[in-house]
Amino acid sequence: MDQVALVVVRAVESGATTTKDIIGVTRLSRLKVERALSTLEKQKLLLRERQGLWALGFPVAPTVRQCGSCTLCCKVLEVTDLGKPVNTVCSHILAGGGCEIYHERPRQCRSFSCAWLQGHLDDDWFPETTGMVPHFGLDALNVQVDLDDPDRWREEPYFSKLCELSLKGLRVSEGRPYATLVIVGQDRYLLLGRTIVPDPTLFGTAFVPVTLDTFRYWKATSLEHLQRLNDRVVEIQRIQQEFGHCAIPDNDDPSPPYRPALLQRSKELGVIRTT
After folding, report:
1. CATH number, domain 3-56
2. Any idea where the domains of the chain sit in the sequence?
3. What InterPro entries does UniProt report for this protein, alphabetically (predicted)?
4. How far is CA 114 from CA 77, 136, 238, in A?
5. Residues in the chain with pLDDT < 50?
6. Beta strand 205-209 with 215-219: parallel, antiparallel or unpaired?
7. Please, are residues 47 and 111 in contact by the beta-carbon 8 Å criterion?
8. Residue ranges with strand state E in 28-152
9. Which residues sit opposite 55 in a β-bridge?
10. pLDDT of residue 273
11. What is the pLDDT of residues 11-69, one digit of tens each?
12. Under 8 Å between Cβ of 53 and 80
């Protein structure tokens, strides 16, 4: 999947449900957005809902557990076909758990299964107990937090586990890498190990490791900006391999060529010596 399509998916995942909304939040041209939407619809990664709104269309993942009494996803997630907004209890929840329209439930509900149901997390991550609904999207592990306990994700043992999952997603050697995104009401936090990135952009975040589980990051404001940031990260890594160290710049809007500025800054700080 190309970067434009990925940005469009992220926009829909963030709540942009019309073509106009997607163009507005991504600042991409109408032609690029419509091409991406057409491609994603053919791949069944996005679908048109009954009201003509765009919605995620990921295939149903197999489950190894049962929901039991838990109905937290029916509270914290949006269901456009039912007109149910995010963080609002669904009117169809039954006392003790379950859904009164289960056999006629919308596609959004049919296609959803959380990471706990799929067996990716231990029993102590039962959503009804944790107040969090972790679920995989196209390129992210999304952790939707119940607003009744908005800081639960920062508590132990949950935060350390989320950091572990984040590092696993960043360093995956097989399969598709994924980001770890915590969603608390209108607030979003990208986890890079133990580094928390508030309000990550749709276009992505460039980063380099500082320690085994912390990172220096720069948030991209466009696809072109992301490319420049990533190109500089590659040059930082090359200098680190060549000299053992490289000064990590504060500038978040670099322009090529990157190597001379990085070497000059590294020499000024005494990080490296060149002849």
Report:
1. 1.10.10.10
2. 3-56, 71-198, 205-269
3. UPF0153_domain
4. 11, 7, 39
5. none
6. antiparallel
7. no
8. 46-48, 54-56, 132-136, 140-145
9. 47
10. 73
11. 998 888 899 999 999 999 999 999 999 999 998 888 887 677 888 877 667 788 999 89
12. yes
